[in-house]
Write a structure and sequence with these properties.
This protein is of the alpha+beta class. Among the domains are: 32-52 and 63-185, no CATH class; 402-516, Maltose phosphorylase, domain 3, CATH 2.60.420; 519-605, no CATH class. Strand 12 and strand 13 (499-504) form a beta hairpin. Helix 7 (146-164) runs antiparallel to helix 8 (167-184). The relative contact order is 0.10.
């Protein structure tokens, strides 16, 4: 199987939590001014407001520069300028998907400023990072990942070209590549391999993208030069090259290897990607959330008990591993990759974005009595701040894939996909039936509607096309499904492994699905008496300010939790409370926790017989 994601304009979110979060993210993207976004690029080019920090204290807040960007974007920060690339990438995708004219206009203003920076710098250099940082890197002197920061500007320009067809963005990137290529070619291979051991971000992916866009052999040479032997060679030899290594230093490199394979067809790149997933996920396992890192590094294989703390699950790793799972699903069609994406969408992307402010939690703490630490709109600009704004523009294409034989509904989030298939245009609408209106007593005087919250994810998929056409549609059966799915449709359907398949024969076909689920406990494999509670793909958090133990059977969640506060007007809520405790603990979805203290893992002791 070789599937492809739909173009941004062909699929969009239509309702629900992910769309609300996307809209909040869009408003934030629009709130930032062009000059503030480009402030460090302008300063490096010598055309910024050099004295913005010297305004007298009696001036207005705006005149004193308090509306500027601070944190990692403060002039003088070693990673200054990194956020702009994330912003461009997010703005381009949002504008491409929704036709947002206001974001497109702001993006044009940013490109105007970058073009001026490049001109002032002599025609190539366009980065906020000074060239001297690359010299320091080459000399082995102290400097913090200049290629990482440079990559972000490249990434933003390339995504503007890819999503919006903007040739100016491509030309700025192509000219800037000349300066980096000249620098990289100045070293013999042995010395350059030492340089690659300092975080390069996604430079490898940049060269693959530019090779694809331009066909220039310069980029083929750079792909070979950026082969990171100390990471890739051990992976190809079947060795664990990841344990206790900084995770998000390596994931972007492997995403670059994936793109290199797609552009060149060279098998060595594909083998690196497949071996990376083998060691990062298959042979390592995950926390109950789907995340794996602690303190930004890969945990030892299946060893999570000692790694729960305040700095588990860095958001950058969540986003980039979702991207990697997407790549591998498109290559091999394994639904396990879709399960991985689902867990990280709900317990990563949603759980690490504040539902009201839209800001990011750099980490998702999994210690007892944890609290999420939220960023701010203009005072932090952590690396995860950047991946957050990108991530929430890229959920919709994860929901529906196409290949030569079928359309696949991969994630159950409300979307509309409009596909140009061989048989003509096909529209797929995916909706969730998660609200339940009271309908009054039934004909026999009994209660109407449902008595209690349904124990199933209920989905409706509608497919529309011209009369007389034929399209095969596949619907993923989630791994957490606890019984046989209930399928209601007039179309002929079959089950093929982890998918329900039906033939759409033109006109309109509607399929109603129910995927049964039950509350389950998920133990830490190296501490089986300690469990988390999960319903469907949703991890629950107990609202408690410390680690506490529960009494009951760790394999039977009904001895530990009971349904609680399940109904609000026409909406069913996911709520539980402990049983058998003098002081009860209430549980809500981890992705709804904002400023409350919480615990995800609970030691369970056997109940004492009376």
């Amino acid at each position: 199987m070789s599937a492809h994601a739909l173009p941004p304009a062909a699929i969009r979110l239509t309702a629900g939590t992910f769309d609300r979060r996307r809209r909040r993210n869009r408003d934030y993207l629009l709130s930032l001014s062009e000059r503030n976004l480009v402030q460090n690029h302008l300063i490096e080019a010598g055309i910024g407001d050099q004295a913005w920090h010297l305004h007298p204290s009696g001036a207005s807040a705006a005149d004193r520069g308090l509306d500027r960007h601070w944190g990692w974007e403060t002039p003088g920060s070693l990673l200054r300028g990194h956020f702009l690339g994330h912003w461009m990438s997010a703005a381009a995708r949002e504008a491409a998907a929704t036709g947002d004219a206001m974001l497109r206009a702001k993006l044009d203003g940013v490109l105007d400023l970058l073009a001026r920076c490049q001109e002032e710098n002599g025609g190539e250099w366009v980065f906020a990072t000074p060239p001297s940082f690359l010299r320091r890197l080459a000399e082995g002197r102290d400097v913090w990942a200049p290629q990482y920061a440079i990559h972000k500007t490249f990434m933003g320009l390339i995504d503007v070209h890819r999503d919006l067809g903007d040739e100016r963005a491509l030309q700025i990137a192509h000219r800037a590549a000349g300066a980096i290529a000249a620098w990289a070619r100045d070293f013999d291979q042995e010395r350059f391999q030492e340089i690659l051991d300092m975080e390069t971000g996604g430079m490898l992916e940049v060269w693959a993208d530019l090779l694809d866009a331009t066909g220039d052999d310069l980029y083929r040479d750079l792909l070979d030069r950026y082969w990171h032997a100390s990471l890739f060679d051990p992976l190809l030899a079947g060795e664990d090259a990841l344990t206790n290594m900084h995770a998000n230093t390596t994931i972007p490199e492997v995403l670059g290897a994936a793109r290199a394979y797609e552009v060149t067809g060279e098998e060595r790149w594909r083998l690196v990607v497949e071996q990376y997933w083998e060691w990062a996920v298959t042979r390592r396992g995950t926390f109950c959330t789907g995340g794996q890192t602690s303190g930004e590094i890969w945990t030892p294989p299946f060893s999570f008990a000692a790694r729960r703390g305040s700095k588990t699950q860095e958001h950058c790793t969540v986003y980039n591993m979702i991207r990697l799972a997407d790549v591998l699903y498109r290559w091999n069609g394994d639904p396990a990759h879709l399960d991985y994406i689902e867990a990280n969408l709900h317990n990563g992307l949603l759980a690490q974005q504040h539902p009201e402010t839209g800001m990011v939690a750099y980490f998702l703490p999994l210690e007892g009595g944890a609290r999420k630490q939220w960023g701010t709109p203009t005072e932090d600009f952590w690396c995860c701040h950047g991946t957050l704004v990108q991530a929430h523009t890229r959920v919709a294409p994860l929901a529906v894939y196409a290949d030569d034989e079928a359309l696949t509904v991969a994630q159950y989030v409300p979307v509309r996909a409009q596909v140009t298939a061989a048989v003509g245009p096909v529209t797929i609408d995916v909706g969730l039936r998660d609200d339940a209106s009271y309908v009054g007593p039934d004909a026999n005087g009994g209660p109407g509607g449902e008595m209690h919250r349904p124990r199933a994810l209920r989905v409706q998929v509608s497919v529309t096309s011209g009369e007389g056409t034929s399209t095969r549609v596949r619907l993923r059966i989630p791994a957490w499904t606890s019984g046989e799915p209930v399928v209601t449709t007039s179309a002929s359907w079959t089950r093929d492994g982890r998918f329900i398949e039906f033939a759409h024969l033109g006109g309109e076909s509607t399929v109603d699905l129910e995927f049964p689920h039950e509350l389950r406990t998920v133990p830490i494999l190296d501490e089986p008496g300690t469990v988390a509670f999960v319903e469907g793909p949703i991890v629950l958090a107990g609202l408690v300010d410390r680690e506490v133990s529960l009494q009951g059977d760790p394999s039977d969640p009904s001895t530990l939790l009971a349904a609680d506060d399940e109904r609000q007007w026409t909406q069913w809520l996911v709520r539980y409370r402990t049983v058998g405790r003098d002081a009860g603990i209430r549980f809500i979805p981890l992705n709804e926790v904002t400023d409350e203290r919480y615990s995800v893992y609970f030691p369970v002791r056997a109940a004492v017989s009376p």
